[in-house]
Specification:
Layout (H helix, E strand, L loop, with lengths): L18 E2 L5 H23 L2 H23 L16 H21 L15 H26 L11 H22 L6 H30 L3 H11 L4 H25 L4 H28 L2 E2 L4
Antiparallel strand pairs: 1-2
Helix pairs in contact: 1-2, 1-4, 1-5, 1-9, 2-3, 3-4, 4-5, 5-6, 5-9, 6-8, 7-8, 8-9
Length: 303
């Protein structure tokens, strides 16, 4: 057959089966998770003026989030180069946000102690308020940038939605609240504030369930790549981890336990056991949620 007799559609790119991204895996999931958990704990503690919780949240971001982020970026002595690519790389922006949070968060924490020169940014001074505002802004950036980093991926339609940063923000507040609620039962904090933390935790769990349901429903009604990823989570390879680990273990069971602790009258020992169990399950569910999204990021390549 000659070239002139060939049909035009022979030159149309063939669509092959869905591919799955392999660049962002466990290290990025760890960095995303502990960044949200630590920054969320810091902000919740800041609102309740719970210094121990702020210190714990700060250390989670500095050690666990920072360590995983630096490990992913590679050679420690070359990390400075990421700041050059901040305008174009969300991973680089993420490290910038972490550094900003650690800097201003440390200044804010030192204002709670009687140290030399700290009086310059003590609470109530204009400089102290500026440090507080910058700490909050950088903490929010650490909590949400991972969602923006994933949403800024048009090749992976399951991530390419403005719902993702919001979902990461809510999940970060939930994880931070759970961590601080667990700590608060072992530190000096008024009972009224513990009750407020319990109400916040229950409300955030309902909010996460609603946001997660909305996100999945939107993806199932979206383009084929997004549908494929949603199906992998709901009925495919990762369905047991997502439905069992994220939905049941990470949300439904902690919600039942949380409601029982709040509306019931458990003993102190029972409350501590319940909080420990619910907190652990939420931590597991929060991490499985992030790694599940990363592992199911599919694209449809052309050849």
């Amino acid at each position: 057959m000659g070239l002139l007799s060939m049909r035009p559609d022979r030159f149309t790119p063939a669509v092959v089966d869905f591919g799955r991204q392999k660049e962002w895996r466990w290290l990025i999931a760890i960095a995303f998770y502990f960044g949200g958990l630590g920054a969320g704990a810091f902000l919740v503690s800041l609102y309740f003026e719970f210094t121990v919780g702020m210190i714990v949240g700060y250390l989670v971001v500095a050690i666990l989030k920072g360590g995983a982020h630096l490990s992913y970026l590679g050679h420690p002595l070359r990390v400075w180069r990421v700041f050059i690519t901040c305008p174009t790389s969300w991973i680089s922006r993420g490290l910038f946000f972490v550094v900003g949070f650690l800097l201003f968060g440390l200044l804010y924490l030192t204002a709670h102690f009687d140290l030399p020169l700290v009086s310059l940014w003590q609470k109530g001074t204009w400089l102290g308020e500026a440090v507080k505002v910058l700490t909050i802004l950088f903490a929010l950036a650490v909590m949400t940038y991972s969602g923006f980093a994933m949403a800024y991926s048009p090749a992976i339609p399951f991530w390419n939605t403005s719902l993702l940063p919001l979902l990461f923000l809510i999940y970060s507040f939930l994880g931070g609240t759970s961590l601080i609620l667990f700590i608060s039962h072992r530190a000096v904090i008024p009972t009224l504030e513990v009750r407020a933390l319990e109400r916040l935790e229950i409300g955030l769990m309902f909010l996460v369930i609603f946001a997660l349901f909305t996100y999945l429903l939107t993806m199932l009604s979206s383009v084929s790549g997004a549908k494929e990823s949603a199906k992998i989570l709901l009925i495919g390879k990762y369905a047991p981890a997502f439905l069992g680990g994220v939905a049941f273990v990470g949300l439904i069971l902690p919600l039942i336990i949380g409601c029982h602790l709040y509306f019931g009258s458990p003993s102190e020992e029972g409350a501590n056991i319940g909080l420990a169990a619910a907190g652990f399950m939420e931590f597991v569910g929060g991490f499985v949620f992030r790694i599940s999204l990363l592992l199911t990021g599919t694209y449809r390549p052309l050849i």
